[in-house]
Amino acid sequence: MVFRLLTETDNEVTEKLCWNDQWISPYESAWGIFEKFKYANNANSRDIMSLFGDEKVRNQKNKSKSKYDLLNFMKFDLNLIRDGLGIDFYHKNKIEIAHMLGPLTKKSYKNEPIYDYSFFFRDTIAYCPTCMENGFHSIFFQFKLIKKCPYHDILLLKECPACFAKIPYELSDLNTLEPFQCKCEYRFFKPQSKLLFSNEWVSSNLDRITCNNVNKYLNLTTGDMLRLKDMYLFKEIELDAYPNVLENIISILDFKDSQVEDNAHFIVTSAPNVKKIRGEKEKYEIQKYTKVNFPGINEEAIRKLRFHEFQKEIYQSYTATITGVAGQLRKTLLSKHRTCINRLIKNPNDKMQICPYAFAYVFWREYSQNFSNHTSVDNYGSPKRLVKNHIEFPQFDVEVMQNLYEFLGSDIEDITLESRAALKWFLNRVISHLSINHFNNMLSASQSYIDRRKFPSTLPYTKYDKIPFFVAIRPKDRNKPLEFHWWGQQLIISNLNCPFNTVKSKRAQS
Q1: pTM metric for this prediction
Q2: Looking at the record's lineage, which domain of life comes first (predicted)?
Q3: Rounded-to-integer distance, Cα 127 and Cα 129, Å
Q4: CA 483, 488, 494, 496 torsion: positive or negative?
Q5: Residue pair 211/204 in contact by the 8 Å Cβ criterion
Q6: Would you say 63 and 50 are in contact if contact means Cβ atoms under 8 Å apart?
Q7: pLDDT: which is higher, 143 or 208
Q8: What is the pLDDT of residue 491?
Q9: Where are the domains of the chain?
């Protein structure tokens, strides 16, 4: 089709522009389509917003330094896009993104999305060099689960091959010289003829996809969709940092309860009836906190009384989990450093030599469990507990665990009436995973603190970049077990030098 350009002033036809809606392929990105439009008409982003921006943007004088969102389409006039490009581009984009996210989208108990687009989509251009040479860029390339081109099985690139610059995924003239061209003049689109450029723009239909995992993901069965709806992704990690996320998720679909874990994929499952298990204390509290026993207060007040007991038990449970992780570390990695640990706890003398393993262990526990100071660790004191009106989690993972807790309660009217065994199993699996990561982070920084003769005032950092990719699954079917999957082992640092390398020297210094 041919599309007429209207001037910004008098709305009269001044020239004809070149456009054909057959140039648009399924799952072609908004960025790619607008680059084609610009290339075909020797236009720029300012011209596009003069045509397709909302009224405020069209009346804006300086559009050249502006940036426009291509996922949510803020500041665009969707009717003008539909009339101009011959396709309901906004709904095409929305439907294709919804299909890609599908069962991965989750909502909290407040009915708010748990994940936003930035969790799943790259904010800078990723591309297949072969596709880009033909002027094609797919929204698949922005999806963090996809690392290779689904059409050519080529690793996606994320920067200009000439100058290594990253190009933001947005409509803007700030990062390109011309359509499909980097600021350094490198051309991504390489037509054989400038006059016959559109011959390169053949439709990339889905039947050209060669990646089995992408095909399977785009064609999930109803059962697959329901299983992934039960899956929780840890939103604080960077999905782009893990090379096999899509493969990992697909492997969950093929998981059977009797499956033996392989060298890369590790699985722990709960008892099948864990959602029905109730302890004696829990049963007693459910019977105690009722209208019969508290006739003078309303249901919400009774629920708060139940919640107080519920909260206390969750706190005791995760504290025991971290203590259990600590015990396992003392039996394994730290088995030869127990004297070092005791010496640091009992005699915190700034002038003495300090073992980096003991240092990491003692301060990891102090700040993970909120001890008053490091001399209180290992049965020399008790963690401080704050009285709160909400679930209390380890201080460095509050946001993480709160997000998980909201996911677990997203479809439950009153979580205090649910099985605590199931909730504790779920939360404690994640907490133990994160605890080892925090210990590893402290190990990484321990020698630096020792060299500076300085005790940390908090955990050195709470990054999760060393943590293996993991997911947790909570089936809605009450007869199915909970699942915890992770891929790869957490490699704990073990090459630090202890200054007390013999039993005799340890004892002499203690």
Answers
A1: 0.85
A2: Bacteria
A3: 6
A4: negative
A5: no
A6: yes
A7: 143
A8: 76
A9: 2-216, 224-509
